[in-house]
UniProtKB/TrEMBL annotation:
UniProt xrefs under InterPro entries: Asp_endopeptidase, Peptidase_aspartic_dom_sf
Species the sequence originates in: Persicirhabdus sediminis
Upper classification of the organism: Bacteria, Pseudomonadati, Verrucomicrobiota, Verrucomicrobiia, Verrucomicrobiales
Annotated GO MF terms: peptidase activity
Protein name as annotated: ATP-dependent zinc protease
UniProt domain Retropepsin-like aspartic endopeptidase: residue ranges: 7-131
Length: 144
């Protein structure tokens, strides 16, 4: 049986494919994961260019280009449906590493730039919702 990594409801998620560490909220009520983007532009060859908003407190951004992993209709927390583009990246969290799918969407009104849904958490992570930052200490230089 695979060893599960315990994480808190909020953690510093490393996305090494993109060279960033970002605060993420574990949300077992959400099926899929999402990351805060702007300027999402579909390109030839089933690729996408997008700009990640990395911080609530600054205008720091990172523009990336990557293959589209899939397109899917997703219902938001408000119940409204949207067609979203998903991309694949590597998640490193609490010593565990996993390839995950992340939808590109505007989360500028949300407190966390990234949401980790059940699909990303399943089989690798056990969420202790009573704890903030169980697996990763607060990182002074990480992006909020």
């Amino acid at each position: 049986m695979k060893q599960m990594t315990t994480i808190g409801w909020r953690e510093w998620a490393s996305l090494p494919d993109w060279g960033i560490v970002i605060r993420a909220k574990a949300d077992t009520g959400a099926k899929s994961s999402a990351i805060d983007c702007s300027s999402i532009e579909e390109l030839a060859g089933d690729r996408v260019r997008f700009t990640l908003r990395l911080s609530l407190k600054s205008n720091e951004t990172l523009t990336l280009e990557t293959p589209i992993a899939m397109r899917k209709h997703v219902r938001s927390s408000t119940g409204h449906g949207h067609d979203r583009i998903f991309v694949e990246t590597t998640l490193e969290l609490g010593g565990a590493e996993k390839k995950i799918l992340v939808s590109l969407t505007c989360r500028k009104r949300m407190n966390h730039r990234m949401l980790l849904g059940r699909e990303a958490l399943a089989g690798s992570f056990l969420v202790d919702s009573s704890v903030d930052h169980w697996a990763t200490p607060r990182v002074k230089k990480a992006l909020k």
